[in-house]
Write a structure and sequence with these properties.
heterodimer; A: 230 residues; alpha/beta; Rossmann fold; 4-stranded parallel β-sheet; 3-stranded antiparallel β-sheet; 8 helices; 7 strands; B: 165 residues; 5 helices; 4 strands; binds iron/sulfur cluster
Chain lengths: 230, 165
């Protein structure tokens, strides 16, 4: 899932400078699960922003909230469409994709990010999420015993470990597991050590963000005349 | 202008603090009458938005009272509530409101006198902090009653319309 966390209340208030009616839009999918931008969290930040604006002498600014099922799918915007025109700013509590989707759907209204989108990750334990995948566009997990060195090795080494690996810990930050220790341990446990003894070839980064914004097209699913968009 | 009496909303666990408040009453203990009690099935039911909603409606302070640590009927509801109160404090400071306006207490159902003590302690603290800037300008009683009713309604989920305007 996409993991995000909230912005400081004052940062939100500053973003809304010059606006009179602001709609905070929560997202019911990833950011609800990571407790950043669902109905409850959007409600909390809505209350907080209203109170902070009042204290700053901007109590006349109307701040309302609503939450839609998913912001990364245009189909779910319909219930919002009727209300959009009543506001002069929208603040999305979805991930960066949601913010941009709202900006596309409401071309005449200022759209702001309510969250800081962090990464694609996993719920490690209650309240703790960790990054697992960088979306490199050409998954090589099969070569690395199912542990991603591109995301989890601080130096993105494909032939690790580096000299900084100590007792299973990465030298970059305390409490950070060395991805290459994890890869070695798991390869050993499942009997595939020989695989990581081979030299891994350099990555082709053209499939990642370095190759420009990416697009996935499934021609068989595109309805004639409706897509794919240019 | 009438003397400032802080309005306090108390989220009380059904199994301990609520019973303790009852006991304080049966024991005829005196404590300020400016506290409004909302019963929760367990303080683990408490969410940060309940606390913020109360402040937004103009209460001067909030306290959450759950069972003694280790004594929660649902094992760890009171520990979760304590963390949520901490989070509410953090958000209150970001808003610019004193985080001391909200606090968590633990007591057993047998501690009627302790309940009265907590109300006294919070009243003294909020009296020295002064009224909340979100307190409605009108006189005392009516908004207080409205506020508790609104808070009760929001607890029962009546105010959760999508796209309210
Ligand atoms: S190899 Fe690429 S796609 Fe696979 S987990 Fe790592 S970053 Fe993600
Ligand atoms: S210590 Fe391990 S995880 Fe850290 S940079 Fe070196 S190989 Fe990568």
């Amino acid at each position: 899932m996409i993991v995000a966390n909230r912005k400081h209340v004052q940062e939100l208030c500053n973003m809304f400078k010059g606006h009179k009616r602001v709609l905070l839009v929560g997202c019911g999918t990833c950011v609800t699960v990571c407790l950043a931008g669902g109905e409850r969290e959007t409600g909390i930040l809505g209350s907080a922003v209203r109170m902070a604006l009042k204290l700053a002498g901007r109590g006349e600014v109307v701040v309302n909230e609503c939450t839609i099922e998913r912001q990364c799918d245009d189909a779910f915007f319909d219930p919002l469409a009727a209300h959009g025109a009543e506001y002069d700013a929208i603040c999305s509590f979805g991930c960066g994709v949601g913010v941009q989707a709202l900006a596309e759907r409401f071309p005449d209204i200022s759209v702001y990010p309510g969250l800081n989108t962090q990464f694609m990750g996993l719920l490690e334990s209650q309240g703790v999420w960790t990054e697992k995948c960088s979306g490199c566009g050409n998954c090589r997990l099969g070569e690395f015993a199912g542990i991603c060195p591109i995301t989890r090795c601080s130096k993105r080494l494909l032939n690790g470990p580096c000299g900084g690996s100590r007792d299973g810990q990465c030298e970059v930050r305390e409490g950070l597991d060395c991805a290459w220790q994890l890869i070695y341990d798991r390869a050993k446990a499942i009997g595939t050590l020989s695989k990581i003894e081979e030299i891994a070839l350099p990555n082709d980064w053209s499939t990642a963000l370095d190759g420009g914004t990416r697009k996935v097209v499934r021609e068989d699913q595109c309805i004639a005349g409706l897509g794919p968009k240019a | 202008m009438s003397k400032y009496e802080p309005l306090i909303l108390a989220f009380c666990c059904h199994y301990c603090a609520y019973a303790a408040a009852d006991l304080a009453g049966s024991m005829r203990l005196q404590y300020p009458n400016n506290v409004r009690v909302l019963k929760l099935p367990c303080t683990g039911k408490l969410e940060v938005n309940f606390i913020l909603a109360a402040f937004e409606r103009g209460v001067d302070g909030v306290f959450v009272a759950g069972c003694l640590e280790g004594g929660c009927h649902y094992l760890e509801g009171n520990l979760r509530a304590r963390r949520r109160v901490e989070r509410a404090k953090e958000i209150l400071s970001e808003i610019g409101l004193e985080p001391e306006r909200v606090d968590m207490f633990n007591l057993s159902s047998a501690q009627g006198p302790r309940f009265a003590e907590i109300v006294n302690e919070m009243t003294a603290r909020l009296t020295s902090l002064g009224p909340s800037p979100f307190r409605p300008a009108r006189g005392a009683e009516e908004p207080v009653r409205e506020m508790t009713e609104q808070a009760e309604a929001s607890l029962s989920g009546e105010n959760h319309d999508c796209c309210q305007s």
